[in-house]
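[retry 2/3] Peptidase C39-like domain-containing protein: previous attempt timed out, resubmitting with same input.
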Amino acid sequence: MNKLVKLLIVLCCISLLATNVYAVDSSEATNDEIYTNINQGFTKPTKEQIKEEQEKFKKAEKYVKEKREKLKKAKGDIEIAAAGGVKVNAVGTFRQALSYTCGPAAARNLIKGYVDTNSWDPNFKATVPTESTLRKDLGTTTAGTNFDATKWQNTLNKYVPENGYLLSWGTSSGWESTLASRVIYTIDYVYYITWGYGRSGFNVIGNINHGSTTTPIHDHYKNGAAHYICIYGYNDINKMYYISDSNSAVPVTYKASYRNTANSTQARGIVW
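[retry 2/3] Peptidase C39-like domain-containing protein: success.
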């Protein structure tokens, strides 16, 4: 066998191994890094989806500005201007079943929080779907879950209809501030079904996507990540978010700073 033929065989074997590197589930995994190196794809929102999201953002920005101003006046001028309070919603604590299903798991944790919050109502019939069902809804493959506005919006609004979930693409500047407005507005939101009673418990999906960084949401992700999380609360005084994470390599819930969460989600964005 000549050298050229041998070289071609070697190159073919390398190519076959490369195409299968992400097709490993958690039962076969020996390296935790597969949880954070899935080759997650993305589809930018359409012009119509961007316009709809921007209209909702204007409401969020106005709401948060007024809330912060009211709290500042109530607490006195010695309080910082951004003292928008603290709010923590119920959330699910499911771990992802497979190495590539962080998207469905994050969605499931979001839906679980909504269902638990509103179970007081005898007319409330919503249930928490399985991860397998959400995999189908989101179009998840062994390569991960695409950051696609249509799929994410349709899926969350199917199981959590009152919030009107929209996908927001991250921005190159000002993302920390605008992210906070979107998160606070969503966490606080109440959809009134009758006077004094309403649906609440709406959380946010975050899509962290970055290489090595000094500002990860958790130290485990400092070497890079492509991963979905659920943001279920905020502390606007200490500038911290409450995170639910389906990756078994980190605590199921923890807190991350506004800055680190913004830096980690800037390359993709959120669904809020």
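[retry 2/3] Peptidase C39-like domain-containing protein: The mean pLDDT is 86.
[retry 2/3] clearing retry counter.
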